[in-house]
Amino acid sequence: MKIKLTSDEIKKILDIESPEFPKYVTQILNLANRNAQGTRPKVVGRMSELIKEFDGHTFEEWEEWYLKRNPKAIDNATNKIMAMIDNFKDALSKIDKAMVSKWVEDLVIIKTFVGLRFQEAILKKGAEIKGTTYRMALPEDESKGIDGYIGSTPVSIKPETYKLKKEHIEHIRAKIIYYEKIDDGIVVDYSEIT
User: Fold this and answer.
1) Residue 188: what are its φ and ψ, rounded to 5°?
2) Nearest to residue 148, comparing CAs of 171, 175, 169, 187?
3) pLDDT at 168
C-alpha cells in the first residue's frame, strides 16, 4: 500500500508549526533567495550533512543544535534576501503596462523566433569564420540529418548532449557543429569545420 504524505501532513505528524504567509509572498521570497543565494551552503551550512551530524530527535533539539553551531546563519541569509527584496521593490516601481507589453513581445515574438532560428545564425557565423557562404538545408537534405551547408560542406547542428548518443553519430554524413544553450545565448563548437 502506498500513501502520500504532504509536507503539511508531515509537519502535523511531527508537531511542527509552520508560519502562514500571505498569497504570493513565498513565491517572491523564493525568487529573491534564488537571486541573492541567501541559503547557499556558504551562508547557512550544508544542511544535508548537518542533519546527519545531528544526534537529537526532536525539532526543538535540532533548532537549538543548529543555531548553536551557526549563530549568524539566519541573520546573514535574511540580510542577503532582504537586500534583494529592496532591489525588487525598486524594479517593481519602474514597471508599467508599456514595459509589460514590451516584455511579452520580446518573449513571444523575438525569443521564439531566435530560439527556433538559431541554426541559421550558427551557419551564418560558421560561413563568416570560413570566409564562405552558407545555406539552410532542403527537405531532402534534412532527411539525411543535414541542417545546412557552409560553403559546400554539409553540416548537422546538434546539442552537446548528442555526443552521449554515440549510436546516432555514425549515421550522419556531415560535419557536426555542437552547441550548448546558456542563460544568454549559446556556445558553439565549430572545431569540425575549422
Assistant:
1) -115, 135
2) 175
3) 52
Q: Which three cell numbers stand for residue 93?
A: 516601481
> How many whole angstroms separate alpha carbon 97 and alpha carbon 95?
7
- Higher pLDDT, residue 172 or 78: 78
Q: Is the pLDDT of residue 167 over 60?
A: no
Please give the model's pTM, rounded to 2 decimal places.
0.62
| Cβ-contact 146, 134 below 8 angstroms | no
How far apart CA 84 and CA 88 sit, in angstroms, is: 6
User: Please, are residues 155 and 148 in contact by the beta-carbon 8 Å criterion?
Assistant: yes
**92 by DSSP, 3-state: which?**
helix
For the stretch 106-117, pLDDT in tens is 989 987 787 668
Q: For residues 3 and 31, which has the higher predicted lDDT (pLDDT)? A: 31
Gap between the Cα atoms of 103 and 24, Å rounded? 21
**Exposed / middle / buried, residue 150 (Cβ in 10 Å: 0-12, 13-18, 19+):** buried
In 70-160, alpha helices (H)? 73-92, 97-105, 112-130, 139-142
